[in-house]
Specification:
Layout lengths: L9 H11 L5 H14 L3 H6 L2 H4 L9 E4 L8 E4 L3 H21 L20 H14 L9 H12 L4 H8 L4 H7 L4 H9 L4
Antiparallel strand pairs: 1-2
Length: 198
């Protein structure tokens, strides 16, 4: 079995966000990290997102994100209810509008949500490379574009969310697939055993 992507703990995640906030493309990269870790999105899904999927024509953040391009083409719905993700979406889109006006580039809700440095759409590979650069600059080893997805599943399970709900949010066809994402945390397992008797 191939080595699984590393997960980040809360302190590492905060450190990552702090470092990303100082990068050249801070607003875009912050949103990438938040959507990876807060929604469990794959690099391929992030690369395929369009502006109109996250905001309405009047600029309001949508309540739900309908994913059409997923692994196995299985449609799934994710909810844009986390305040930091909503705020990051608004800030990044505002920045995009300002840059578009300044550089006389057309701004359209049909465009990709995430644009590269040259204002083109990321491919799956170029976005995965962008994650690699973000993690390298933050000093993380073994952390990949899939780490956010794996951390998302592990965090939800550790918070007591039932695995069926996690499986639905991950877009898995069965719970066994979701279980492979979850890292067995000895502290969590110890706490479970401590509560086993009436």
């Amino acid at each position: 079995m191939p080595k699984q992507a590393e997960i980040l703990n809360a302190d590492e995640f905060k450190r990552l966000l702090k470092i990303v906030s100082t990068s050249k493309h801070a607003k875009r990269d912050t949103l990438l990290i938040l959507m990876s870790y807060g929604l469990g999105l794959r690099a391929v899904e992030l690369a395929a997102l369009k502006l109109h999927q996250v905001v309405s024509d009047d600029g309001k953040v949508r309540e739900a994100l309908q994913l059409k391009r997923t692994k196995g083409d299985k449609k799934r719905t994710l909810y844009l209810s986390e305040p930091r993700i909503k705020k990051a979406i608004i800030e990044y889109i505002e920045e995009r509008k300002i840059i578009s006006e300044k550089k006389r580039i057309v701004f359209s809700h049909q465009q990709a949500l995430f644009l590269s440095q040259k204002y083109g759409q990321f491919t799956n590979k170029t976005l995965a490379r962008r994650f690699d650069i973000i993690y390298r600059d933050a000093g993380f080893v073994g952390v990949t574009s899939h780490s956010g997805r794996r951390t998302f599943a592990t965090n939800l399970i550790e918070q007591g969310v039932d695995i069926k709900a996690v499986s639905t949010l991950m877009g898995h066809s069965n719970i066994q697939m979701t279980a492979q994402y979850v890292q067995n945390n000895p502290v969590r397992l110890s706490n479970i055993c401590a509560k086993a008797l009436y």
